[in-house]
Fold each of these.
Amino acid sequence: MVIVFNPAAGNRRVHRLWRVLDILAANGVRCEVARTTGAGEARELAAAAAASGARQVVAAGGDGTIAEVASGLLGTGAALGVIPLGTANVLAHEYALPFAPRAVAAALAFGRTRPLWPGIAEDAAGGTRPFVQMLGIGFDAAVVHRLSPRPGEPGFSVVLFDRPGPWAALCYGAALPLGRLATAPGIRRLRARVVEVIGNRDLRAQTDGDPAAPAPRIIRDASCVLPLVVG
């Protein structure tokens, strides 16, 4: 088992990692820890671990680290494990993954998986960027955290805001904490297998909570499923 660790996590969260490692070691599970030193390195470390024969690669960090590790594992057959050390931990909450060190260690040791189906964002130049939770363009951040489904099957839940402008954004923002966003006027939710983005190419975009540049032109399913360790 290879654990890709983002040392940017705070001391309290890092303590959770060491507790997990201690429990795994006490139960005879061999672990190798690979620390990241910059953006994008988690993907490279994960891909290298899978190429070296690791059957499970664990992302120890926040949602950005998880997304990078997942990107490196896509198509390798290696399972993705998670030690949630981030602030939001959206994917861990969506899949009801454990947070307590003993429960996390037990889940990783047992290794039961369920499918996680990533998406691929393709820009106009042909560059691609995998994502495992969300992709948003424009006013989306709070919405995707509240409405995003578990990505266990192909396809996307597309949320469209038909009413532009600051007043509409304020109304949508007010509806969100009241649980009324899905029924607010000007909101459309669709299911899609492929999404094409047309029009303004200067819009900001994000994938899994990290800035994505340039904005995607095509959004499609990945070619294969990613096994996610759930315990």
Note: The chain has a mean pLDDT of 85.
Amino acid sequence: MKKPFKQTMGDFLAGRGFYIVLFLCVAAIGVSGWYLMSELVLPAEAPVNGPATVTLSPSPAPTVPPTVKPTPTPTPRPRASPAVTTPTPAPTPSPSAAASLWGGEVYTWPVKGQVISDFSLEVLAYDETMGDWRVHEGLDIAAAVGTTVKAVNAGTVTAVYQDDLMGTVVEMSHENGLESLYANLAAQPTVKAGDTLDTGAVLGAVGETAIAEVAKPAHLHFEMRKDGENVDPVLYLPAQ
């Protein structure tokens, strides 16, 4: 009599079937392990993306061209000119120097004003009144008519007179061979010959009596002499 299927399978499992089932389980476990390992372990490959390495080659140092110094062009030497000697004018004495020239005394100006005609013996000066060129032996000092005229230093009146060209004139003598002359004064001076005057004493007033200088503005004509020779009063008078 044939056994039912369930009984047959039960007999099989009770005999060899146990080993077959064990084999199948081991196989299943091996397949599962291989699959799992294949998912976790990646093949070693070279990284696609990674830090780029750039190798810089050193640049060659720039070549500096050698400095070429320009050859200087010789400058022609100027031809030597003949030496010209310029005379050095004599310095104008200061008030202290003027005092030594006057024997230690400082003189004062007879009137205060602008010098409109300078002393000139070596160079001829044009005379507006006479219309010619001539020397000028003193200073013409601008001053209004009636301005008092003072003695430039202590001394003695040596002469009071009327000159045909220079009008009313007063002359004085001083120490060390010096003399002073005041011309174009008013007709009546305030002194007479022989009077002794101190520095700054009034001896007259500016007038219009000098016909030789009538074309000039009102002024005093003033002269100085040293040992009888006319000298430039500016060298002896203090600065105004």
Note: The two ends are 178 Å apart (CA to CA).
Amino acid sequence: MSDYLYQMEPVFDEVDVEGVAECVRSTWVIEAERTAAFEQAIARYVGAEYAVAVPSCTVALALSLMALEIGAGDEVIVPDLTFVATANAVNMVGATPILADIHPETMGLDSTAVAQALTPRTRALIPVWFNGRSPHIHQLCQLARQHGLSIVEDAACALGSRWQGQHAGTFGDLGCFSFNTTKIITTGTGGMVVTNNPGLHERIERLKNHGRLDRRDYHPIIGYNFHFSDLLAALGLSQIQKLPARVVWKTNLCRWYYERLAALPGLYCPPLHESESLWYPDIFVEDPPALKTFLEGKNIQTRLYFPPIHTQPCYTTTGHFPHAEYSSPRGLWLPAAPYLTEAEVDKVCTAIGEWLGCHEASRYAC
């Protein structure tokens, strides 16, 4: 390991390497038995009846909306504070993303803001498990039932995260996960849709495979080429064996950080509830870019929160988003690579404390 602390970096071992090499040696690298096994492993882990592997979580979200027959003329409510892919997936199917503010504690969709955003054209909600935190999912599901709406959970950053014993992505009609290189386990790229609804499962399978359920040339509906790959699945099958231990490690990592940082003046640690597994440990400070620059000078990499979607040039819109506008410019994600030691967390926290002391004394003059 170098002295540089990466904010996130994937970790592979010889078991991962051998799993992929065995797939290559077999020459069977298209979506086949390994993909089916990976789907079954994810379904078992999260407690869903069905899982379907796809090229990315963005595709998973779009396919979920297609399976619900959401498209042109429909509206889908998404949180203003999330990665832009959540809204992009709505546009992919021809529907309109409607932005709603977040709850300041969960940084997920706020049910009051959702209720105010409803119109006769609203068809679905996409609650995001922002950084792995539950977005008051029971309230949002109840609201959806009252108004006859579907729920597609964006759990891209929430594999391993649970709320009241139930896994993220299994509360609504469909749930979507990511296996990008920054996630708790990775296949390099890739996503997964989970559901307990057999009809939606069949539609997802057809939509990702040119409208068919197998490789026979019978196409009752229009579909697309959103196949996975057994190369990716081979890595996923190895990585998922590490997932339980990594969830425990993530819990310990957050504890190490928050125990050391909680008492520092000028810094706030967002709440973390039992069984929630954070994507990255995060903090709130008044000038994250300045702290980021300071830490970079000490070979410590961090990541700023996403900008609110309504501020993006492709989504510029008016609205009332006070909690998103407050949280976004104050959030900073700390180093979370799977090999970090408690001593390295000490190094990060000591540097943050040093910057905070300079901040109080000389207003970012350090």
Note: The first strand starts at residue 50 and ends at 54.
Amino acid sequence: MPVDIMDHNALERFVAAASERFGTIDALINNAHTITLPAPFLEKTIEDLDVEMRSSVYAYWHLMKLCFPHMRDHEGAGASVINFASEAAVTGDALYAPYAASKEAVRGLSRVVAREWGQYNIRVNTICPNGMTDNISGGIGWMEDATREHIERAFVNNPFRRVGDPYEDVAPVVVFLASDDSRWITGQNIHADGGGLINA
């Protein structure tokens, strides 16, 4: 179902259709995001920030609230919210000020909601993935050489020295977080990035 995640009315219709179709909502995976063109902070505009905030943290905020009545108090392992964050925000990657700001806001929001919604048997986690999607590979070809090379280096900056595959490397982690097997995990940030970020 095509949905403009920056349109609250569209989100309401989407959640209503999903709950009607399936009778409940067991998992919410917030992974959509509009990324503005990479550029130094001094060149970015408040409009860039607005687009990135509205397409991520604001949309995730709305969707969590809209899905809550359909997710609360499920028996057994309960329900799961998975919000996509980014290693670029954790490390403060150059050229991505609006992206980093919005993705760190997602992590902060998710930690709060995890604490508040455990009582309703809903777990909330974030994931920082590293995988070259078709959108990314198709979008960097026309960028300036320096910007394109910066992005390409970021995707292989891991111990495996290869680009992650979103389907083979990242999707199974999302499935795990959505499944009953993750019943005792909430408020956590999972790096599915091939070790791109390793710390204590």
Note: The beta strands are 27-30, 79-84, 122-129, 189-192.
